[in-house]
# Entry
Amino acid sequence: MSGWVIQGAVVPSVPVLGTEDRFPVRRIFCVGQNYADHAREMGSSGRETPVFFDKPADAVTTAPEVPYPPATGNLHHEVELVVALAKGGRNVSSEAAAECVFGYAVGVDLTRRDLQAEAKKGGKPWTAAKGFDHSAPISPICPRERAGAVHQAAISLAVNGLMRQQGNTSEMIWSVAEVIAELSRLFELKAGDLVFTGTPAGVGPLERGDVVGSRIEGVGTLAFTIV
Ligand code: MN
# Structure
């Protein structure tokens, strides 16, 4: 069977830290409410099992400027540890999950909080709240052999130099390995998958002109301006 090409079509990809390589993005999975303090600020007890949702692969952006999306008056930041998979599978054990990891990145799960609140109230999907264009700003991927102790790493986000979110990845309800294992019961995971692993407390609104600076110890930094 011969292939065909649409001129201008682009496979979304993310730079790999310290190399000329790029990581081609297949799917973006996200975990909701994976830190107890954030779950509480969103009105949960903090003990519910995390929810999974996704974003389109081309929602990733490494651009220094991120456009304020249309159709919202309450754009929120959620800083997250992102896991990039070198391989996947079905029913991966949490012991085998570590071997699936290619590397880690700093990501921000941008959220139209007003549309998410409406969706939650109406029992409707989160696509418009979470899966919009440019909704997944991400740092270059730090290969796992070069990353620090990501399971016990300070994670933070500041807006215009003022600290908004400050936590530690050790506070995750489900660990990276458990998230990969659980996702693989629902989806066949593959190389190129990204997993946003949830955000600590302190989420809040962004306005045009805001400078967002986020950091995960041992992984990297991510900075962008909302325009
Ligand atoms: Mn999130």
The chain has five helices and 18 strands. The two ends are 44 Å apart (CA to CA). The chain has a mean pLDDT of 95. The helical segments are 36-41, 94-97, 113-122, 127-130, 176-186.
